[in-house]
Amino acid sequence: MHTTTWMGVQIRKNPLDAWVCQELLHRVRPDVVIEIGSYVGGSTLYFANLLDLLGHGEVISIDVSRAGYGVDHPRVVEVTGSSGDSAVIDEVARRCSGRRTFVIHDGDHRRDAVLGDLRAYGGLVSVGSYFVVEDGIVDLYPVGSALHPAKIADGPLRAVEAFLAEDDRFEIDGHCERYGLTWNPAGFLRRVK
Ligand SMILES: C[S@@+](CC[C@H](N)C(=O)[O-])C[C@H]1O[C@@H](n2cnc3c(N)ncnc32)[C@H](O)[C@@H]1O
Fold first, then answer.
1. Cα(78) to centroid of ligand 1, in Å?
2. For position 152, what pLDDT does the model report?
3. Residue 24 is inside which H or E element, if any?
4. Which domain holds residue 22?
5. 186, 157 contact by CB (below 8 A)
6. Number of domains in the chain
7. Is residue 65 pLDDT above 90, yes or no?
8. Given pLDDT bands bounded at 50, 70 and 90, which one contains residue 2?
9. CATH (domain of 55)
10. What is the pTM assigned to this prediction?
């Protein structure tokens, strides 16, 4: 994973999931992609380059840290701070007002943090668009194993389960998992109402 790159910049994504995101962005044609968790920026640049190809849209990159982040692209707006911080939520909501919005979450992977972000940003997702929750795969492996760090005792998949139990605006789009190898099981959430 740590040697995967997009245009020379490290990207922490399963390439099949990245491909599915390309399909979704082409279908949705969002005005805004909210990326929660950018790290060094390979995924941010990937989304910005896809929007270049579509000829439309911007990426709002939210991250608590810009250490190591090195992307400079005219479609990218940086919002630096925790995604759970009310000032960050307010600023992002203001930027997305009235705009077709797509969200991808790859920030703090602990259940309660992901659930908080689903609640805070879910309402910004346009009907027909998506909230992608990354890395729920950790919850399918034993806690403390190489694929499930102990610091994430309950992770993104547990957050998705809790969120879907309380919010009927979203449905899992199983078609996005058709390649059979995804790090985002039950993580491609389509807003249906
Ligand atoms: C797995 S990395 C993101 C990888 C990137 N999306 C990619 O595909 O290359 C997780 C990032 O989330 C950020 N992060 C962790 N907690 C966060 C929070 N509460 N709010 C915003 N960003 C957070 C970290 O600083 C880190 O850069």
1. 13
2. 94
3. helix 15-28
4. 5-191
5. yes
6. 1
7. yes
8. confident
9. 3.40.50.150
10. 0.98
